[in-house]
Amino acid sequence: MSDKFAVGIDGSDASKRALDFAVARAKAQGGTVLLVHVLEWSPYSFLTPSELEERHKRRQEELDRASAWVVTPLVDALKKDGVAVETVIKYGHIADTLAEVAEANGATQIVIGRNGHSSIGSRVFGSVAGSLVQTSPVPCTIVP
Predict the structure, then answer these.
(1) Could you give the CA distance from residue 18 to residue 96 in angstroms, rounded to a whole number?
(2) Which of 19, 21, 31, 62 has the fewest Cβ atoms within 10 angstroms?
(3) pLDDT tens-digit profile of 27-54?
(4) C-alpha dihedral, 72 to 74 to 75 to 76, nearest 10°
(5) Chain centroid to CA 126: how far?
(6) At what angle do helices 128-135 and 94-104 cross, to 10 degrees?
(7) How sure is the predictor about 119, in pLDDT bands with cuts at 50, 70 and 90?
(8) What are the DSSP calls for 10-21, one per residue?
(9) CA distances from 48 to 56, 86, 140 (A)
(10) Strand, helix or coil at 141?
(11) How confident is the model at residue 122 (pLDDT cuts 50, 70, 90)?
(12) Do the Cβ atoms of 46 and 36 come closer than 8 Å?
């Protein structure tokens, strides 16, 4: 059985380091890489039907932009490098969605980058890395 590495990507330097780590492991083990880009979107809304329609339109535009600017360039580079790659782009809570996608796609490990910021927001609400380590259904590697 080959390993599948689910990598959380957002275009940051931290996610590029995580991807490099996962690609090295996938190549060494004959595994695959699953690129996962999660867009945060509040599930709570009190909108009119016309506002909801506009919101859905904007969501699709954001998904298309994420695919074109973040995911597709990485897929092209990985394919040229001979790495088997799959992609998922979803809305949701980042840590929860990464865990769900990893489990649903048979990933054996989740790899994310740590940006090293210690903002007041992460102290109050928790970081993605901290949440993911506590809830991940598979081993989780945080790349510094």
Answers:
(1) 18
(2) 62
(3) 999 899 999 999 887 666 677 788 878 8
(4) 90
(5) 17
(6) 40
(7) low
(8) -SSHHHHHHHHH
(9) 12, 36, 40
(10) strand
(11) low
(12) no
